[in-house]
Amino acid sequence: MDLFTAKIDRETHTLHNVYRRDRFLHREGPGHLQSVFGQRMMMVSEDFIVGYQVALEEELGDAASDIMYRCGFEWGKKDIRSFAKRYVEEFGKKINEANFGSMLETWWWPFQASGWGAWRYDLSHRKEGLIYIDLFDSAVAQSIGNIGKVACHYYAGLFAAVFTHLAKRELSTIEIQCYSMGEDFCKFVVGSSKRINAAQFWVQEGARANEVIARL
Q1: Average pLDDT over residues 57-75
Q2: Superfamily holding 46-215
């Protein structure tokens, strides 16, 4: 068989990590958008994202970022549990038995397919208790634009919940660099609450990402 021209029988073969949006999303009817995993989806405009964020900040002030973080954390807890179950059904093994990098990419691809952006993670500092994540094309930051401060609190909560589940210990996340600060991409640090609280203090004092990383 010519391996370069062979066609997959989609009735008998499972397609893994399909990034094409037209394969990932489909309409069940008017106003009903669904993912290939049966999840209810919603497409929103940049104006919706900006309006939602601004409304929260106007109503809650400084507490808005904490609320968004907690929403992201709850979202992440639910998603990683659903993913763990789906992973066993699809690959025949538990997520803690899988190749860690491959498993992480499999977890993230539905987010990328549905417009949340691409990522790059750095696990080389795990022995030091730190994980770094670069996020490209953040749906939130790209919509809001340059506002001079970090904006991706949902993502921070999401990453905290997922790596808490995988590490089986409580972890926190902080964004130390953001597209909404005029940077090319967003950067997050995942670690213990004590170290993340220290990083948060440095960020509030005006430290840049490379300075925070050096201090950590």
Answers
A1: 93
A2: Trafficking protein particle complex subunit 3 (3.30.1380.20)
